[in-house]
């Protein structure tokens, strides 16, 4: 479970309040996770625990996920 020491703080990084910075935040998180998994090669249990935590956080509410923001308070386009 030593691998989780570097993975769990990723869940604590606050999302930016400015919607323009959301793409940069998502790119940082994705690149960090790809680099971490390629460099450190965490064990299967740690990977499953982290992915379960991310999926539960994303499933608990639309604005809670670390990979996308919510459309509350401003106009969102349907792309």
Automatic annotation (TrEMBL):
Acts as a tumor suppressor; induces growth arrest at G(1)/S checkpoint and apoptosis via RB1-dependent and p53/TP53- and NF-kappa-B-independent mechanisms. Modulates expression of genes involved in the regulation of proliferation, cell cycle and apoptosis. Signal peptide: none annotated. Belongs to the BLCAP family. Pfam families: BC10 (PF06726). SMART domains: BC10. InterPro entries: BCALP. It is found in: Membrane. GO terms for cellular component: membrane. The chain crosses the membrane at residues 20-38, 45-69. It comes from the Eukaryota. Keywords: Membrane, Transmembrane, Transmembrane helix. Its main location: membrane. This is Bladder cancer-associated protein.
């Amino acid at each position: 479970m030593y691998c989780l020491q570097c993975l769990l703080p990723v869940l604590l990084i606050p999302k930016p309040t400015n919607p323009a910075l959301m793409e940069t935040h998502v790119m940082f998180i994705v690149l960090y996770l790809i680099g971490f998994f390629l460099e450190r090669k965490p064990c299967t249990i740690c990977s499953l625990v982290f992915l379960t935590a991310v999926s539960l956080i994303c499933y608990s509410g639309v604005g809670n996920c670390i990979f996308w923001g919510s459309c509350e308070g401003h106009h969102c386009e349907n792309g």
